[in-house]
Amino acid sequence: MxxxxxxxxxxxQVLEGLEPVRKRPGMYIGSTDLRGLxxxxxxxxxxxxxxxxxxxxxxxxxxxxxxxxxxxxxxxRGIPVEIHxxxxxxxxxxIMTTLHAGGKFGDGGxxxxxxxxxxxxxxxxxxxxxxxxxxxxxxxxxxxxxSKGKAKSKVTLTTKDTxxxxxxxFIWQAKNGTKTTFLADxxxxxxxxxxxxxxxxxxxxxxxxxxxxxxxxxxxRTGQERHFYFQSGLATLIKHLxxxxxxxxxxxxxxHKVVEGIDVEAAIQxxxxxxxxxxxxxxxxxxxxxxxxLTGFRIALTRAINDYARKIEALKEKDENxxxxxxxxxxxxxVSIKMDSDKIQFESQTKEKLxxxxxxxxxxxxxxxxxxxxxxENPQDARKIMEKVLLAARARAAARAAKDAVIRxxxxxxxxxxxxxxxxxxxxxxxSELYIVEGDSAGGSAKQGRDxxxxxxxxxxxKILNTERARLDKVLExxxxxxxxxxxxxxIGDTVDYNKTRYHRIIIMTDADVDGEHIRxxxxxxxxxxxxxxxxxxxxxxxxxxxxxxxKGKEIHYAYSDxxxxxxxxxxxxxxxxxxxxxxxxxDSPDAIGTSLRTxxxxxxxxxxxxxxNPDQLWETTMNPxxxxxxxxxxxxxxxxxxxxxxxxxxxxxxRKRFIQTHAKLATLxx
Length: 671
Known about the structure:
Layout: H1 19-23, H2 25-29, H3 34-53, E1 59-64, E2 70-74, H4 91-97, H5 120-126, E3 128-137, E4 140-147, E5 150-151, E6 156-157, E7 177-184, H6 196-209, E8 214-219, E9 224-228, H7 234-241, E10 253-259, E11 262-270, E12 277-282, E13 285-286, H8 292-311, H9 324-328, E14 331-338, H10 359-377, H11 379-412, E15 433-438, H12 440-449, E16 455-460, H13 472-475, H14 479-488, E17 505-509, H15 514-530, H16 532-536, E18 540-543, E19 548-552, E20 555-559, H17 562-571, E21 597-599, E22 602-606, H18 615-623, E23 630-632, H19 638-649, H20 653-663
Helix pairs in contact: 3-5, 8-10, 10-11, 12-18
């Protein structure tokens, strides 16, 4: 047996106990919400991926059981179960109950590992109310159960009459391997119910990066199942990311080379859009904050395109170099590296940024050489890319001129802020908020009803430009967007500075009708495409004005949904049969859509617009921090969000038509 395939107790190193994980779970899994719960699943899946990367597993199963139990299984070698020579207990128990214990520190355990330091599965155990580990190895099956990170018994041979605390129909089809079932601790997590669709996306992304491995996802709660297998890896992922876009060149540029122990893969494809979509990974882990490998990729892409542009004389010697900003436009790319698990360095346990400085020059050289070769061998595609990039450079120059004009205009008018902005008195951005309001009528009510100490109001007239298919120079020609950019203080384009953001709560407040929803979507499109860090920093919110005012005599209540309206009526004194009949009060009833409906002493007013509320009502229901409901806008999956905006707001009609047909039954129509 070779050193690389041998996997035994001697290769398990022991460093630390589990109490720190329960005391500070956020340090190990990032959060204790749904995202943190899914991180537990990811940590167990990562262990199985390690077996796959080492060449010992071909299948990885994930099963969602009733009552929130989750199982992850593989057909790898199985975790060693023999007694650990230093600790005197089973190696399985050491791995499951000791932080920083695992086969990922060299010594032939794993060469490439997704689970840095072996923290993962022990952290899952620490944060689980129940965990059961099963191992098939050398023709035998063993198991051990744990609670809150502590073993409940010794490692034992499995028998057919083993009692399980959960029901399952899953049959583990593997001669060897590891199966882990856990129930997250509800005293630590805000939710312990996994989300099938989010896990589906999570596993599908990994399947792209670990080509040739079968991923199986089953949901025993609903009967849903998904299976992923991608033989071509990054090429398939790039095509998926660009599937609703018009392409500049038909096939992705694929680059793959191993240099000094670092396996570098990159896939690049340009579309005719104006936005960038670049994803990076290190040892199959998404590095959402980038790192040295992404920096190396960007350096190489910029150099390669500049060199080729000068070679074909698309750029003259006197011309300035094309910049990274020019090259980003329409770029879709994936950068993935794999390296020894004992050398890789992340800047946090959640592994969102790669810290290895040596990766930058290696990635830069591999990508530069790969691009040079592609441009030489594919001159027609290369020229199309150059035309796209040069057009972006000209547009960037025009956008800078337009932006400078906006700044000069502000100075000439003797003010830096637009006249329509009713600013707040507080100059501390962390204590200030900006309401972006639809129309002058609602804007007037908001200005009168606000607390001027910390609330600013910016009314927008009509629908703003759809910025999905507009370059920055065209965007800045639109007066309402100009006013918004100046009010925010961030600037825009290549000189944007988010440290100058004047408000740390930017609240979209539109009417509760189709037009209001459209305006909200247009605003979100602008922020996502041109000021994305406003969303990433957690500054973006959507106000939730009430749908109904329910009044009987002097008693007044506000309802934010049909269900809440019905509950208010039920709770109020004795209600007649007519007034408790839900069908007579439905929002889509023609009688209910007018300003009000009288029934059995109740006046039920359906608000069609913010302008129908007087300033006191608007303050009380929608702007008072003690009463209001705000929804924070977040981005969980950048590529999925990009896909939705491209489909909903782009030029291609067929994808949007398919979306409408698929989701028509889910729509709430305000007729």
